[in-house]
């Protein structure tokens, strides 16, 4: 009886495929930078709240759980289309994750937005993204989806720069 059970389990696992037989995940990284003619603390004060993304990505955003800027805070983008959670932070950065399944064909999404001081009066925006594109075998599609992200977040960095450098009324 035990031998029959073991054979049935082995056959079932073989039919599903073993992890060693699975295709290598298509992990993608994007690293973008933008210099800003403002001190890092001023830049972060202008663009560093968790839902400031709504302004620089032109998407509705609302905080739905936790406290803004703290690990565990949850934001809702595009009226529930995307949910993201802060999983790490410093004084001038936050790292967030998106649950699997939020974007079709994508998993293991993590992003990091940071402002790095360069001089007393200048800084650099750094946006890094790591995700898995589930389009294994579709290299052209993977490249196209990555390039769309690079373009979208590149534009977001330009908007963050403009917002940060804009003259402020006293």
TrEMBL record:
Keyword entries, A-Z: Signal
Highest taxon of source: Bacteria
TM annotation in the entry: none
Endpoints of the signal sequence: 1-22
InterPro entries, A to Z: Polyketide_cyclase/dehydratase (IPR019587), START-like_dom_sf (IPR023393)
Pfam family, one: Polyketide_cyc2
Protein's recorded name: Polyketide cyclase
Organism expressing this protein natively: Novosphingobium sediminicola
């Amino acid at each position: 009886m035990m031998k029959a059970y073991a054979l049935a389990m082995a056959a079932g696992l073989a039919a599903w495929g073993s992890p060693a037989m699975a295709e290598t995940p298509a992990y993608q990284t994007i690293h973008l930078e933008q210099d800003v003619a403002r001190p890092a603390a001023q830049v972060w004060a202008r663009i560093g709240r968790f839902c400031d993304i709504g302004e620089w990505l032109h998407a509705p955003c609302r905080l739905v759980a936790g406290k803004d800027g703290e690990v565990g805070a949850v934001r809702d983008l595009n009226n529930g289309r995307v949910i993201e959670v802060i999983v790490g932070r410093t004084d001038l950065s936050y790292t967030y994750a998106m649950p699997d399944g939020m974007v079709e064909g994508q998993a293991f999404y993590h992003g990091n937005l940071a402002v790095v001081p360069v001089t007393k009066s200048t800084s650099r925006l750094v946006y890094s993204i790591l995700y898995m594109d589930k389009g294994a075998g579709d290299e052209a599609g993977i490249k196209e989806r990555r390039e769309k992200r690079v373009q979208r977040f590149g534009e977001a960095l330009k908007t963050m720069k403009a917002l940060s450098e804009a003259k402020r009324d006293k």
